[in-house]
Design goal:
By secondary structure, this protein is α/β, with parallel strands linked by helices. Among the domains are: 1-110, no CATH class; 111-321, no CATH class; 595-639 and 676-712; 716-937, no CATH class. The protein is 34% helix and 16% strand. The chain has a 7-stranded mixed sheet with strand order 3-4-5-9-8-6-7. A 6-stranded mixed sheet has the order 20-21-22-23-25-24. A 4-stranded antiparallel sheet has the order 12-19-14-17, with no helix packed on it. Helix 15 runs parallel beside helix 17 (705-715) and helix 19 (768-779) crosses helix 21. Residues 1-25 form the signal peptide.
């Protein structure tokens, strides 16, 4: 058979369709697949070219990303242009795959390849329009990129970037085959085909010239020996450092070979971009599971993404199953899903839809393109940026813009008209936020955003805003809104060294279009995170709108970032991280009451709230908005932060004086709230309220139990987590862990809520009667010593959570009596103890007990310890004793807690009096009323009196 080459060029394509880079035989005559397992038939060239479907309007739209001058009839031209482009991609990619796994006579090569986990990487094309993962493991890959979800681990990739060609393997191939490694030798013929394709553009064309090769980061001896032995060529090594940006010798190089030993070089990604643009051939091979900075630069340039292989099961790194070309194609093929989807939209009755669910092939195809658009936006790029190599995306975004105005989420469901459903899904999936023009659904975005929001005025002049950055990385509201289909521009004035991106909303769930409730809102109404570039006006636009959020990393906690913004709107945003005036609150309240915008946000130190307007108004009810805000701040956030000892809540005089006496640092940056807790009132991920960050609920934010419970999950420290191995079997962990420890914080919030607002909720959270009944039953066993303690350990710490939670409250009550000398516990004393206990844990984590002086260790009662490895009972015992000013060993024994000799010795070094066994009894369900209890004294041995209530 003869070899020939085709090169298709189109000025509107952002990639060259390298048809001539495959081995093409005669015959063909259609895509018939493989009639047998030992040969294959080439795919025939498509009958059309993309240029056949372009007019002046669509050409301009593909360049600008704007549908302003398009008519609805232009959708057909765009669909056919995209289909023709997809068919060209199918043509060159499938033929290239066939040529790599066959000889010159189209006889299929059956081969195997086995990678080893540690000295290898898994590789995949960043963009499947420019490359294919031609070598893949047989088994489903654990932890691989979403682009290959459910498929094999990538072992080898070919990509076509600009005029250049790239061949990449995840492990060293030259040395492995030269050394006759059985895991690699059967792959030799495919390896040789891939090298011929890389060097000549044809998998079966001999390399009939001396090659000028440069090798960096791997063995040049192995490269030379392999190429000369296997490809029967001569290799010349000119003195040319292609990783030196100053070099001028690169133009004469035929092949650039790069390995992972390049980390000492000084170059940027743009250097590799330059070589590819000039048509150079680049070979990359991995040799180590970790990906460092220079390797990542190369991968970014050659269009390859990598997974690290340290924990990979080597069975997933094996390609061994015999396969024909059609089978290999199906394992990597995603373009055919695009072709089918486009064919459906052009002629709906000619394509079978299948069941509409998340696994539907057309739905999956649309999500693949959605992910590709998300990756572009994450890099600060648009589908219409010159750097985008997947030209199909441009047409899809424009088609979605044309369809979106007619979208109506009322009454839409999977059992209705499939074309309307799938068109709606496409208009929701094919989104590009990094531009200046899009369209909105005239009827609004369901319960995410009302149609009235589209008429909100936006700023026409630049305004400077400052954003408080609460931690080193996260998401935070900036106090401005994106209005549907109205462009926003953002300039970075001062990022304080942080990396910044912008997005709408910070939500983690938005319902399911395929669910019984129907297609009620956009498939993904919140935007992707779009990178903000320095020294430019960054364009951003959303068809659905929403509160604008900064997504940031590499930041300094507590810093203030300055931005300039234009085209955004003010909405109901309350920011208490900066000075806020009555006028600000009144303006935000008025915006909320108008119901024009779909959302409102609250920003506090350590916490942010985003909720839909109807839920907010429902939660506010007849309360003045200012009172509602104060209650949210006071009960949800302030109470939690006081108990945790965060430095945003000023110390009262009593606590400050005791910190001074102890010689403790109670206010520095180590006591800054470590996390920002986000709350979302709209849709719950699970049940009615669901924990996490963000936590979400199907209700508005209020001061009930649920929200403080969820905040407790994300702020609770170890000193409230009394967990330890069971003494009984030394294996199972028992005690007060998740769903118990966080409720200590939640219960404290309820205590303060009752004190301030006379609202009594969850008065049984601290179940003192149940705790005392454990003591009573324990003593009635007539056991003594360690047997008595062990019985109490099992009885209490494997029992009821509310009794376990009461243990920490009894410590706090004893603090008010023994240290403060109060006749009855009060809220100030309880919070002071909890505050100091949480502060002491952070101080404990800061000190290195292997190096610290005796004076510094004794400040925390840690004098006998030489390592920061205290058990939880030991840590709480030592720190509580130091805070209390009494040795609590008998009290911890009373409650069945195991202590080590070193912990007792450490407290003994403080020369403290032994604490008496006091118990503060409260009526059942009345734990929020501290004044209603009575003190009881418990003897060290023997029976105890009955509970007084």
């Amino acid at each position: 058979m003869t070899k020939h080459a085709f090169v298709f060029r189109n000025a509107l394509l952002t990639i060259s369709l390298a048809i001539g880079l495959i081995a093409c035989g005669g015959g063909g005559g259609g895509e018939s697949g493989e009639s047998t397992n030992d040969s294959w038939t080439e795919v025939a060239p498509p009958s059309t070219k993309p240029g056949d479907f372009i007019n002046a309007r669509t050409s301009a739209a593909l360049n600008t990303g704007s549908t302003v001058n398009l008519t609805l009839q232009d959708q057909t031209s765009l669909l056919k242009w995209a289909l023709s482009t997809a068919e060209q991609q199918h043509y060159w990619q499938k033929n290239l795959l066939g040529s790599l796994y066959s000889n010159a006579n189209h006889k299929i090569i059956q081969t195997s390849l086995q990678f080893t986990a540690h000295p290898s990487l898994n590789l995949y094309p960043t963009d499947l329009s420019t490359g294919i993962p031609f070598a893949m493991g047989d088994s489903v890959c654990d932890g691989s990129f979403a682009i290959q979800s459910g498929k094999g681990c990538g072992l080898g990739v070919v990509t076509k970037i600009g005029e250049g060609r790239v061949l990449a393997y995840g492990q060293e191939m030259f040395s492995s085959i030269l050394n006759n490694n059985a895991n690699f030798t059967q792959f030799t013929e495919v390896m040789n085909n891939s090298l011929r394709w890389l060097i000549t553009g044809d998998a079966h064309q001999a390399v009939n010239k001396t090659l000028n090769v440069v090798v960096k980061g791997t063995s040049n001896v192995d490269v030379k020996n392999y190429l000369e032995k296997q490809l029967a060529t001569t290799v010349n090594y000119p003195a040319c450092n292609v990783l030196n940006p100053e070099n001028i010798c690169w133009k004469d190089i035929d092949l650039i070979v790069l390995g992972q030993g390049i980390e000492g070089e000084k170059f940027e990604k743009e250097l590799i971009d330059k070589y590819l643009k000039a048509g150079k051939a680049i070979y990359f091979q991995g040799s180590y599971w970790d990906i460092q900075a220079n390797t990542q630069k190369v991968l970014n340039a050659i269009g390859v993404q990598a997974d690290m292989n340290w924990f990979r099961d080597e069975r997933t790194l094996l390609m061994s199953n015999p396969a024909n070309i059609e089978q290999r194609w199906e394992r990597i093929n995603q373009i055919d899903g695009t072709i089918k989807t486009l064919q459906y939209f052009i002629a709906p009755t000619s394509v079978t839809v299948g069941e509409l669910n998340a696994n539907n092939a057309m739905i999956q195809s649309m999500l693949t393109h959605s992910s590709a658009l998300q990756r572009l936006n994450g890099q600060g790029l648009s589908a219409f940026s010159a750097e985008n190599r997947n030209s199909i995306l441009k047409a899809l975004v424009l088609i979605a813009d044309l369809w979106r105005p007619a979208v109506n989420y009322t009454g839409l469901n999977k059992n209705g008209d499939p074309l309307t459903f799938i068109q709606t899904y496409a208009s929701d999936a094919w989104l590009d936020y990094k531009r200046s023009q899009t369209t909105a659904a005239v009827q609004g975005a369901g319960d995410y955003m009302p149609a009235t929001a589209q008429n909100m005025p936006v700023s026409s002049n630049w305004e400077t805003i400052t954003v408080t950055i609460p931690q080193s990385g996260g998401v935070t509201a900036i106090g401005r809104a994106s209005i549907p289909a109205k462009a926003v521009e953002i300039q970075i004035v001062d990022a304080q060294g942080a990396n910044l991106a912008v997005q709408t909303s910070h939500i983690r769930t938005w319902g399911n279009p395929f669910g019984d409730g129907g297609y009620q809102r956009p498939m993904r109404p919140n935007s992707y995170s779009v990178k903000l570039n320095n020294q430019v006006a960054n364009a951003f636009i959303s068809p659905f709108g929403g509160p604008l959020m900064l997504n940031y990393n590499n930041a300094t906690a507590g810093s203030t970032i300055t931005l300039k913004i234009k085209g955004s709107a003010k909405y109901a945003h309350f920011d208490f991280t900066q000075p806020i005036t009555d006028a600000d609150i009144d303006a935000a309240s008025a915006s909320l009451q108008s119901r024009t915008f779909g959302w409102n946000t609250f920003k506090f130190v350590g916490g942010e709230i985003q909720q839909i307007t109807p839920y907010a108004l429902q939660a506010i009810g007849n309360t003045a908005p200012r009172d509602y805000i104060n209650k949210i701040k006071t009960i949800i956030f302030d109470s939690n932060h006081i108990a945790n000892g965060y430095n945003n809540m000023p110390l009262d005089n009593s606590t400050q004086q005791y910190c001074n006496t102890l010689g403790w640092d109670c206010t520095s940056t180590i006591h800054r709230a470590p996390n920002v807790q986000h709350f979302i009132g709209w849709i719950a991920t699970c049940g009615f309220l669901c924990s996490g960050n963000p936590s979400d609920g199907a209700t508005g934010l209020d001061i009930g139990w649920g929200w403080v419970h969820e905040l407790g999950h994300n702020t609770v420290q170890g000193v409230l987590t009394m967990t330890f191995p069971s003494t009984e079997n030394n294996k199972s962990t028992i005690g007060c862990g998740t769903e118990c420890n966080n409720n200590i914080l939640a219960g404290l919030s309820m205590l303060r809520k009752n004190e301030i607002y006379a609202l009594d909720n969850n008065g049984n959270n601290f179940n003192h009667p149940r705790l005392y009944s454990n003591i009573l039953d324990n003593r009635n066993t007539n056991l003594s010593g360690e047997a008595l303690r062990l019985d109490m350990e099992k009885r209490l710490w494997q029992g009821d959570d509310n009794a376990k939670q009461a243990f920490h409250m009894q410590l706090a009550y004893n603090y008010t009596k023994l240290h403060q000398g109060k006749s009855q516990p009060d809220s100030q004393g309880v919070f002071e103890f909890m505050r100091l206990l949480n502060i002491s844990e952070r101080l404990y984590k800061k000190i290195d007990l292997s190096k610290a002086s005796e004076v510094d260790k004794n400040k925390l009662g840690l004098g006998a310890f030489t390592a920061n490895d205290l058990s939880r009972p030991d840590m709480i015992y030592v720190l509580s004793s130091k805070i209390m000013g009494y040795d609590l060993k008998e009290m911890f024994k009373l409650y069945g807690l195991p202590l080590t000799d070193i912990a007792r010795a450490s407290v003994g070094m403080l020369n403290l009096d032994e604490a008496p066994l006091n118990f503060y009894a409260q009526p059942l369900n009345r734990s929020n009323y501290l004044n209603e209890g009575v003190w009881m004294t418990i003897p060290v041995t023997g029976s105890v009196s009955k509970y007084p209530y």
